[in-house]
Amino acid sequence: DQQVKQNSPSLSVQEGRISILNCDYTNSMFDYFLWYKKYPAEGPTFLISISSIKDKNEDGRFTVFLNKSAKHLSLHIVPSQPGDSAVYFCAASNRIQGAQKLVFGQGTRLTINP
Amino acid sequence: EAQVTQNPRYLITVTGKKLTVTCSQNMNHEYMSWYRQDPGLGLRQIYYSMNVEVTDKGDVPEGYKVSRKEKRNFPLILESPSPNQTSLYFCASKMNWAAYGYTFGSGTRLTVV
User: Fold this and answer.
1) Are residues A41 and B107, on separate chains, in Cβ contact within 8 Å?
2) C-beta of residue B83 within 8 angstroms of C-beta of residue B31
């Protein structure tokens, strides 16, 4: 049972435009969400997170939006740069179950074209 | 430099030959975990450890063992590897069980033939 789903395996965006990566979840108990970025031959690195008490969190070019009613979150990258080409993982957790239980999505490979 | 170090980075082995993947962190983190990454499945947790001598199963623990005798080390043991354990493995650590931000190692690509 895939509780966190990233339905787009890949996404291609022109440099300078907006990249939008989507993530859906099924467990309504999730209350904290994270995005990780992964380059080839490296481990995932933390990018940005959002608590369920918020609907938006911004950090420079990266913004995460959370729609709790739709159980959907998205990561916006504006403007997209070639160095943003990577695999992006969405992850979710809940405080009751304990933060050790991070559930990851399948990942979306983002390619930024010059 | 704060980091999680895994060894080896690449490993090809034969079915049934016991192997250990080492993981070490230098951040004095209490919590450590092992994940495997497979195409179309994302990252799935194998085992985790909340502190020394405290370990528990994740989502896919079958065929794996772990130990946490020291705070900095969390080795992953495959007693009798099988081809379905061919995968990309990541060790990760974080400050404690309540923290959300993992630091991941660079990964170990294991092939079992």
Assistant:
1) yes
2) no
